[in-house]
Design brief:
The complex is a heterodimer of chains A (101) and B (479). Chain A is mainly alpha-helical and 101 residues long. Helices cover 41% and strands 4% of the residues of chain A. At the A-B interface, helix 1, helix 2, helix 3 and helix 4 of A face helix 9, helix 10, helix 11, helix 12 and helix 13 of B.
Amino acid sequence: MISKKDVQHIAKLARLGVTKKEEGKFRKELSSILDYFNLLKGVNVSRVEPTFHPAEHFLNRKLNITREDIEKPQKSEVKNELVEAAPQRKNRHIKVKAIFQ
Amino acid sequence: MELRKLTISQAHQGLLKKKFSALELTKAFLDRIKKVDKEISAYLTVTEKLALSQAKKIDDLISVGRNISVLAGIPLAVKDNILIEGIKLSCASKILEDYIAPYDATCIEKLKKLGAVILGKTNLDEFAMGSSTENSAFFPTKNPYDLTRVPGGTSGGSAAAVAADLCCYALGSDTGGSIRQPASFCGVVGLKPTYGAVSRYGLVAFASSLDQIGPITKTAEDAKIVFEAISGKDPKDSTSVESKTPNPKPQIPKLKIGVPKEYFIKGMDPEVEKVIKTAIKKFENLGAKIEKVSLAHTKYALATYYLITNSEASANLARYDGIKYGLSSSLSLSQGEGSNVKTLLDVYLQSRAEGFGDEVKRRIMLGTYALSAGYYDAYYLRAQRVRTLIKEDFDKAFQKVDIILTPTSPTPAFKIGEKIKDPLLMYLSDIFTVSPNLVGLPAVSIPVGFVGKLPVGLQIIGKPFEENKILKIGQVIAT
């Protein structure tokens, strides 16, 4: 069983605000799921390579595909739409709380 | 003729022969949505204006005698985690409540070019995390066969919409069964394509090494039409590929079918097992050779799946920060005196606390834990190694057989509320569908019978890029 402190630590890493009441609930729920995950401890994987990409073996080609490093100018409407999606703006800038105290 | 009951090919023929117009067809569905969707709750957004204007364009083309594609003028529904330019996109989450998609997903761009008519956006489990569509932040969707039961998930809105004739076909997304399991629960066809077959550009990312977009349709033939329309290489998704795999018409008498013993387990509904075994017997009667195969690491698949997807999700969902778009606690009314949103960190913590539901929070935390210092090797990396063993099981089996048959789900549709309080119990309903995603293989759920009044789906798993083959085989057996 993970501790309440663990829950606080994970929540902070994940940038999730968690109330005191939720701490207890998540502690129980996460613990039971992690217990289930411990099933994998019974598998011998000492000589097994990981598969990060499911299609590696049948795509038959290099996995890292990069695009050319060139500018792709977009219409100003597109740019405006993206900026306008931000909850807080000043002119064409996205506004955030002060980062340094 | 009941327009709403037509398959894609039937509707296309009707349009060509001028038995009805695209506008009439579209209005038939819009009317039905108005009448019936109060009960089903399949749609989050109905895009009536867009649908009518798209339909009119097709009628204009038909009236001047232009050739039209088989999907032109045919109304579809789109899962609300796929972007359509200018239309609200929520992922059934509060954190995206007022978000308007700034561009089209590649599959939408392709369908629009073919003249498709978009009726609206369908309900899902928040961020496609769940198995019943009960995790929607807005409302649960009901199973059209029994309104007290779930439609499955996460593409529950799309599957229910097809089953209840609220659209001609639909798009869903599938990370661990999210197209196939609801297709099974709602008695329709649902295809998860090979990883890379369909571009993921414009699909909201959940677990990027497993996510695929696919069709939910009334028939296997319709699924083939939609799959061919949306698949192919896309420069905007570096993992997409153009398949060159031939899919010749399968000869059932020459077919070697694998049945994995690990998929017929204790805890499975005996009535479901009976329906599936009858379907397998049908293939045998048609001359196919049935072979027992072993997928020995099946019992580890679910834990492997949840470790990998939660880890990928915890990274993918970091973008919802209350800064760039969506819900933000920096705007909330609690801003005044005594507000606890003072620093940038507070904005992150509060926006995500308010915007995400419990299941999304659980998965982000589990993923964060599995990736964190000291646990990475024991959880995340170990799961990726077990994934290799699961892949090797399938490689071995497919050396002997052409396709693999399993139940899509161990039970028919369950009751609303039955599993929602126990996250682990809910996870177990994905037990037969997660493996094809882990190894990238195509798989389809085909309706093959009923338990009482509830539909049951057969899962057909194929070799990479053999979607059309498994769909053709499915067509033979569909009820």
